[in-house]
């Protein structure tokens, strides 16, 4: 894949990372590794329709991104709690809010995740969970899912008071793993997350199982396939 210049507002023009096999892979957590739709039953538990689950999570992500742009963003837990109140029409007690939100620590994994992480381990490519939620919640959920042993660590952009996808978030993550950005891959099921990573100079791997295809509005990922294990196979197959 050729190297092309990708301008980014507020940052020097960056070169698109060449399509090379990554030395490290960052894996998004919510909806890439763990299935947020499992929270639907908790909405029913507190007397709310289960379809509010998707609206709530989408609103939480939107609000976190908007507050990141505007300045003064709060931690994911605070943003999610406010989004849950709004989504449910301010009808839930604090205990009911706690019941729904505590489900983030018990989310089940998608079936394509363990094969993907196993393939990275066999290829000796270190993998890190990369979340905008709290690192502690992600660790609890990954432990409960039996997946944390495949991961070198859990990185949370709460440490730099930001949500994805500004470039500084991916730059920070690359510094944490001590590998240049063009040799780090971001693996996610959200095209906007992969878009942000590619524009920041990382290798992008998109699992299209949520969105069905690569949207026309994002930069092309280096590898795209329906399932996470297929994307990992594509990343491993890239030239060294």
UniProtKB/TrEMBL annotation:
Record has Hydrolase as a keyword: yes
Matching InterPro entries: HAD-like_sf, HAD-SF_hydro_IA, HAD_sf, PGP-like_dom2, S-2-haloacid_dehalogenase
Entry superkingdom: Bacteria
Keywords recorded for this protein, A-Z: Hydrolase
Entry GO MF terms: hydrolase activity
S-adenosyl-L-methionine as UniProt keyword: no
Pfam families according to UniProt: Hydrolase (PF00702)
Organism listed in the record: Pseudonocardia aurantiaca
This protein's name: HAD-IA family hydrolase
């Amino acid at each position: 894949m050729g190297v092309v210049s990708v301008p980014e507002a507020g940052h020097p023009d960056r070169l698109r990372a060449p399509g090379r096999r990554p030395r490290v892979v960052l894996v998004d957590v919510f909806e890439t590794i763990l299935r947020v739709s499992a929270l639907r039953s908790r909405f029913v538990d507190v007397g709310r329709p289960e379809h509010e689950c998707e609206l709530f999570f989408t609103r939480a992500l939107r609000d976190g991104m908007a507050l990141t742009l505007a300045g003064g963003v709060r931690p994911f837990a605070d943003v999610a709690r406010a989004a849950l109140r709004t989504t449910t029409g301010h009808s839930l007690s604090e205990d009911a809010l706690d019941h729904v939100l505590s489900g983030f620590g018990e989310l089940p994994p998608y079936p394509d995740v363990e094969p993907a992480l196993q393939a990275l381990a066999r290829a000796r490519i270190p993998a890190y969970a990369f979340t905008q939620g709290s690192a502690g919640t992600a660790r609890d959920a990954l432990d409960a899912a039996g997946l944390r042993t495949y991961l070198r660590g859990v990185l949370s952009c709460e440490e730099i008071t930001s949500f994805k996808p500004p470039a500084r978030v991916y730059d920070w993550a690359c510094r944490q793993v001590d590998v240049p950005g063009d040799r780090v891959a971001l693996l996610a099921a959200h095209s906007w997350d992969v878009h942000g990573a590619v524009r920041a100079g990382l290798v992008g791997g998109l699992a299209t199982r949520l969105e069905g295809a690569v949207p026309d509005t994002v930069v092309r990922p280096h590898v795209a396939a329906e399932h996470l294990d297929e994307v990992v196979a594509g990343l491993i197959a890239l030239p060294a």
